[in-house]
Amino acid sequence: MKLEIKEYQFGERPQVTRPNREILTILGEEGIRKLVDDHYSLLRESEIGAMFPPDDKEFEAAKLRSSDFFIQILGGPQYFNQNRGEPMLVRRHKPFKITTEGRKIWLECYQKLLPELGLSDELLMSYWNYLNVFSSWMINTEE
Question: What is the Cα Rg of the chain in Å?
Fold first, then answer.
């Protein structure tokens, strides 16, 4: 199965469909946290690594917030809302220069990790499609 990165016009806001909640049932919170941890490890070593906190404690806190968000999106406990308030991720990412290329690198890191999860093609595509569209909303800087 090919996880293709869909391109969007700058400023385009395609409709986001949440991923299938069965993913959380299969992977559990621990599995989602490991996926985010592995993703952040790849990101830290990538061309966009400078966007992430260099301090290990801050970096761990960023991973926790991200995994809390994904657990919540997958129908789990409302950790993100409890600890950070409503997501408002477009606004929260505004201080960072997120380009189409940065989004591509972010998604490429997930392309490496998602096939290793052992999810069915249907569930894998449900998560991938969510990431593909969701990430397009974060682009805030033209190349």
Answer: 14
Scanning the structure block, which residue is given the tokens 């477009």?
90
Q: Nearest CA to 112 among 26, 41, 11, 10?
A: 41
> How far is Cα 81 from Cα 15, in angstroms, rounded to an integer?
22
Specify the DSSP class assigned to residue 114.
Answer: G
- What pLDDT, in 10s, does the model give residues 73-90? 999 999 977 767 666 665
Q: What tokens were used for 99?
A: 């380009």
- Measured over the CA atoms of residue 24, residue 125, residue 3 and residue 97, the dihedral's sign is negative
pLDDT tens digits, 32-63: 999 999 999 999 999 999 999 999 999 999 99
Contact 120/34 with Cβ under 8 angstroms? Answer: no
CA–CA distance, 40 with 21 (Å, rounded to integer): 22
Model pLDDT, residue 59: 96
- Domains of the chain from N-terminus onward: 22-138 (1.10.490.10)
Average pLDDT, the chain: 92
Three-class SS state of 84: helix
pTM: 0.92
